[in-house]
Description:
Elements: H1 2-16, H2 25-78, H3 82-107, H4 113-125, E1 129-136, E2 140-144, H5 147-163, H6 188-193, H7 208-213, H8 216-222
Antiparallel strand pairs: 1-2
Helix pairs in contact: 2-3, 2-5
Amino acid sequence: MEILNTLYLYLDALLVAPFRLFSVPIAGFYFGTFVLCIWCILLGEVTFRIANWANRAHMNKLRGQAVRMHNLSIKAISLKDKENYRSCNKQANEAFGKYFFNMITQGAAFLWPVPFALAWMGTRFSGVEFQLPFPLPIIGDTMGFAVVPVNMYILCRIFWGKLRHRLPFFHQGPKVGLDEGEEEMISWAELEKSRGLPARFWNNGESLEERKADPPGNAAADRKNLP
């Protein structure tokens, strides 16, 4: 417990230092809040990259499964196999759902420092209020300190998005999704445009017209990859 208390005191001294650089209190408050927002953004970026690296194999597996089942569903409907189409399409939707919600959870790594920063500012500036030019319903004629860091964080995020690409470590965003051996996703638009499944999507390069011309025994070979 003593170690945690000592750690908090050192962290508190580090965070409050920028607020004391200006003799004018309001200038120090805005500058210190700006520095705190930059710390939140940097910490969130680093955390997101670590989480992406640790979770990359799992995300690739989910996305690969989703693409594979989606492609199999389109191949099934091209062969007029409605039963396998429904089965593959259901599994593809489930895999896409898991991938989507994992991406949302992983993206939360960007924001986790913000509530901690607001909690710390509450211990220092809970009594700070800003007078509004006119009263607002429910809010009244004053607003608490939180209005400044929240809005400044949003502005810093916008500025960071434009600046990040010029920085050495952050210029390249983390890779999300498949990187090696990615299976090309078949789009419904391409299927409609080609009036059938393009030849490159069949394992042996045959077009759908050639498939239809095959005897039933050969067409059954296409279904061996369907669950």
